[in-house]
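FIELD: query
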Amino acid sequence: MAWLRRALLVFLVLVPLSGALARDSLVERVDSPYNSIIVRKIGSSVYLDFVVGRCEFVESIRDLDDPTKLPVSYTRSVTAALAYPNKLDSILEIGVGGGSTLSYLQHHLPKTRLTGVEIDPSVVAMAIKHFGLKPDERMKIEVADGRKYLAEHSALHDIIIVDAYRGTWVPETLTSVEFFGLVKARLSPNGVVGQNVGPTTLFYDSLAATLKEVFGNVEAYSTGAAPGAPANVVLIAYSGKARARGELAQRAAVLQKQYGFRHALPALVAGGHAAGFKADAPAFRDDRNSANTLLMIDRANSKNTPRQRREDCE
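FIELD: result
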């Protein structure tokens, strides 16, 4: 089973527990109010996993021998969003995990303000302890629900990244038209949102339809996968006039020369295209009265939410 685990680590994966793997690589385990968290070390790589029943889901990877590398393919693809805004003053990420994307941006963008919003304080603690996450005067980590945070803070950001996975599940409150309307209200002019879409977790067509309804423009970046495995897709959405591919390529080249990104931005941007999805796919919407939004969010974040489990993990 270890070979299967290694083969699928390029994206959010479902992995049955292996006895030898569990014994030989375990660094630390923490049970928080939100997640059962395992940190493993295999070779030079450290893994942040969430456990659901008998299964593990890889949430983040750090290569200790190459700490500026983004080992998980979708985290590289989401940096294509850097080419879209006309400035990079502020970037916010909902769902910190091991903090690999934030650490990458912190390393390469010395003047950009960074904010990470993570609901689970134990995840933040593990990211700092084992994954090199280093909050400082430029990078703030806020322990909060992402939707509540946006509702309570009116600051504008040039990029908002949404990557709030919890094992088998993403809270519905972070997928709806109403949520992305709030995201849109917190974007600066020409700002964009980047959404990681796991093929085994989110309904791609409905999420793309949701982003299309709110923003008007949706572009897709396939991230690659192990042989025989479905690939994550990064969706980048924004309002206003559609960006020409040539314009994005030129902007990516300028930024690459300026910042020297470890993963070449022009090559990442070249993989983008208009997102295709089923025309009749329904957009996601809040299914409760708006007066109960706070209650709805609290229920969605419960560790015992039935939709956080899957039959093959029981």
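FIELD: remark
The two ends are 18 Å apart (CA to CA).
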